Amino acid sequence: MNVSTALGRLRLVGFLEGMSFLVLLGVATPLKYLAGLPEAVRVVGMAHGGLFIAYIAAIIQAQLEYKDWPLRRSGLVLLASFLPFGPFFVDRKVLQGLPE
Asked: Which of 49, 47, 58 is nearest to 3 (CA)?
């Protein structure tokens, strides 16, 4: 992953955003409801929110940098961020193999 390109940064931020979503759903939320620790959701939720914003910014940057990047691809990449494992699927099926 070459983070000096818009595509590389998008892939990196997508990985981090996807991981934070899984930690939020799989660790922090059960800690909140089963162990009575709402702080877990607060901390992980804030990190996930920041990474989500960074992911959107990386999508926009890729859209602007790659002139032949279809708007539909950007929409698919954004939509995937709302699904658990979505960013990983998009990275594997849509982004991997694109010329940087």
From this structure: 58
